[in-house]
């Protein structure tokens, strides 16, 4: 005979953390035990607390049992995140201080009946459905005997099941040893869902990641996925969950440079993205400035994210080419955000940008340069982040211009650090043409999806009257730039 | 079903104990027996034992931060001290109470 629960889909408690619910296919197993493992400072307490607070706000009362920290302090920590907190009078959330006295003396066997009886009564009174045992390893260490630890953990597991409580147990793991080789390595076997939180330092930047080790009776994402603990608590990067289906837009958005729009066949398509590459000092930020200024002139909200460059300097430099962003900043149409690339991991930046976009609700976004994401914490993660940002914007119908520094001398050997040119809809390149003792900026369109575009190299002109492209002049099958072009223009 | 409370009156230097137990659980039964044996043996005239059965009063366990059963609390003389377990290790109990250990006398 089949156990009835085998045919029923597993009920899950959503955690309210989008990426986490994606990983677990909907949240934690209801009425089962979930184990959160991780080294010190990995975010176990915050994650469990956040899940508990979220549940409490959804009218699912919960209890937080703190074995290691002062429960009052844990409750206060919850207040430092921007979470709505349940009203204490509603008794939806209850903290228990269960720290073990340091001077306790042991004599003979004991068990957890005392605590469980107390919690059982409390859970019944407040109708609790969710219970967190934070730092269960601290409690188990009191037993100091593997057989007793196993017995008591089993007692706890059974107790949760009998009381139809969803349990979250957190426990420390030590270093890089596999979770099952740890002192309490038997715990993942007992738990229905086991989650490992890790923190690594790459290029001096700490990166957190989360991985679902097991989820009994449910499909889940196997990969390790980055997460951050930001001002709103734990945010988990979505592992898949990206809808790569772009919303089709026929509308064109001006780049802010009329002649460039003409080269593109009318501008960029709304909701698409354009990659602008070039070497240092080539004028990428200037073109980006022209793009947001045009957006603001159309009365569209815009966001200009600059990595490692002061917003004030950008505004000042743009004024030299007759682009004045200050009235748009003053009116709130334009938000300038300067970010230090080394201040966070690429994942951290992604979450930050996501929040900014959510807050400013822009139609046009500049990320200058996107390659800054790859400066810390490894290219693979950065590329995934870049892709997520691109998809995020595309799904929101936001037109994005992101710049990338080109490294290396041959522009045809696609050397953007992130290799994002494959997912970009348009790719513009600023290059220097060295010819007859002159160094001239030239712009070319390498690709532009879904539209006819010019294949000509055009000279990019910056002056106090603005930014424009020179008319193409060709001679002897060559595109002329600089003095040669001027001479040619005069002679005609 | 509660065992009687042994009373010594209020003699100075009396030992007051509070034993938190889960009524009927083997470890709890053993702890109670061990505690009586120790009290009768070492301070027969001056002890008092209060029993808290956490099944009868579960809220008390949480309020008093009692995590495991059995837990013995010596409330007097000060300082308060806590011993967890079924008290089968008499030496350990005596050491905790600051009494000379019997076998070595």
Give a short summary of the structure.
The complex is a heterodimer of chains A (492) and B (105). Chain A has 492 residues and is of the alpha/beta class.
Description:
The complex is a heterodimer of chains A (492) and B (105). With 492 residues, chain A is α/β, with parallel strands linked by helices. Chain A has 2 domains: 12-236, Rossmann fold, CATH 3.40.50.300; 252-491, P-loop containing nucleotide triphosphate hydrolases (Rossmann fold). Chain A has 15 helices and 25 strands. Chain A has helices at residues 4-7, 18-23, 44-57, 71-80, 113-126, 136-141, 146-162, 187-190, 258-263, 284-297, 311-319, 326-331, 346-360, 379-395, 482-491; strands spanning 12-13, 28-29, 33-38, 62-66, 93-97, 105-106, 130-134, 166-172, 193-202, 205-215, 225-230, 233-236, 252-253, 268-269, 273-278, 302-307, 334-339, 364-368, 399-405, 426-435, 438-448, 458-463, 466-469, 473-475, 478-480. In chain A, strand 22 (458-463) and strand 23 form a beta hairpin. In chain A, helix 10 crosses helix 11 and helix 13 runs parallel beside helix 14. The radius of gyration of chain A is 29 Å and the shape is elongated. Residues 1-7 of chain A have low confidence and may be disordered. With 105 residues, chain B is of the alpha+beta class. Helix content of chain B is 30%, strand content 23%. Chain B has a 4-stranded mixed sheet. In chain B, helix 1 links the parallel strand 1 (15-21) and strand 2 (47-53). The longest helix of chain B is centred in the first third of the chain and has 17 residues, at 26-42. The N and C termini of chain B lie far apart (38 Å). Residues 6-11 of chain B have low confidence and may be disordered. The A-B interface holds A 96-101, 103-115, 117-122, 139, 142 and B 20, 22, 25, 27-28, 30-31, 34, 54-55, 58-62, 65-71, 81-90, 92-93, 95-96. Strand 6 (105-106) of chain A pairs parallel with strand 4 of chain B, so a sheet runs across the interface.
């Amino acid at each position: 005979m089949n156990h009835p629960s085998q045919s029923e889909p597993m009920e899950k408690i959503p955690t309210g953390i989008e990426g986490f619910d994606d990983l677990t296919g909907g949240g934690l197993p209801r009425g089962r035990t979930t184990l959160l493992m991780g080294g010190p400072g990995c975010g176990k307490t915050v994650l469990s607390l956040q899940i508990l607070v979220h549940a409490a706000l959804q009218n699912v009362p919960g209890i937080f049992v703190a074995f290691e920290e002062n429960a009052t302090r844990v409750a206060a920590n919850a207040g430092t995140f921007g979470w709505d907190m349940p009203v204490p009078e509603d008794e939806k959330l209850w903290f228990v201080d269960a720290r073990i006295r340091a001077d306790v003396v042991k004599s003979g066997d004991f068990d957890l009946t005392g605590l469980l009886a107390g919690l059982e009564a409390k859970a019944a009174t407040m109708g609790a459905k969710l219970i967190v045992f934070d730092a269960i390893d601290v409690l188990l260490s009191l037993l100091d005997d593997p057989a007793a630890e196993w017995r008591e953990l089993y007692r706890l597991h059974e107790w949760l099941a009998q009381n139809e409580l969803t349990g979250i147990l957190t426990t420390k793991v030590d270093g890089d040893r596999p979770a099952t080789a740890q002192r309490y390595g038997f715990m993942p076997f007992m738990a229905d869902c086991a989650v490992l939180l890790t923190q690594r330092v790459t290029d001096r930047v700490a990166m957190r990641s989360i991985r679902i080790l097991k989820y009994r009776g449910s499909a889940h994402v196997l990969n390790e996925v980055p997460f951050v603990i930001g001002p709103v608590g734990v945010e988990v990067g979505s592992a898949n969950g990206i809808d790569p289906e772009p919303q089709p837009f026929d509308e064109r958005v001006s780049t802010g440079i009329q002649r460039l729009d003409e080269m593109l066949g009318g501008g960029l398509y709304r909701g698409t993205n354009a990659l602008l590459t070039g070497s240092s000092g080539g004028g990428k930020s200037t073109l980006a400035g022209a793009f947001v200024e045009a957006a603001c002139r159309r009365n569209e909200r815009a966001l200009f994210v600059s990595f490692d460059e002061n917003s004030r300097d950008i505004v000042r430099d743009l004024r030299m080419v007759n682009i004045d962003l200050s009235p748009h900043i003053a009116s709130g149409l334009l938000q300038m955000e300067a970010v230090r690339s080394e201040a966070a991991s690429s994942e951290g930046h992604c979450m930050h940008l996501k929040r900014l976009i959510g807050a400013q609700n822009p139609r046009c976004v500049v990320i200058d340069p996107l390659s800054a994401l790859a400066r810390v914490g490894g290219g693979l993660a950065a590329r995934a982040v870049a892709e997520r940002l691109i998809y995020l914007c595309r799904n929101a119908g936001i037109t994005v211009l992101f710049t990338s520094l080109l490294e290396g001398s041959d522009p045809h050997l696609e050397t953007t650090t992130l290799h994002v040119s494959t997912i970009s809809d348009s790719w513009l390149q600023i290059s220097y043409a060295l010819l007859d003792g002159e160094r001239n900026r030239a712009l070319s369109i390498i690709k532009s999806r879904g539209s006819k575009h010019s294949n000509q190299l055009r000279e990019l002109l910056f002056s106090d009257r603005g930014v424009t492209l020179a008319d193409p002049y060709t001679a002897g099958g060559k595109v002329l730039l600089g003095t040669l072009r001027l001479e040619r223009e005069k002679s005609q | 079903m509660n065992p009687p409370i042994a009373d010594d009156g209020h003699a100075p230097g009396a030992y007051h104990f509070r034993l938190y137990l889960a009524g009927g659980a083997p470890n709890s039964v053993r702890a109670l027996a061990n505690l009586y044996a120790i009290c009768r043996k070492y301070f027969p005239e001056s002890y008092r034992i209060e029993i808290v059965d956490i099944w009868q009063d579960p809220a008390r366990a949480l309020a008093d931060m009692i995590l495991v059963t059995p837990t013995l609390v010596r409330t007097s003389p000060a300082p308060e001290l806590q011993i967890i377990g079924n008290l089968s290790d008499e030496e350990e109990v005596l050491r905790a109470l600051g009494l000379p250990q019997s076998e070595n006398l």
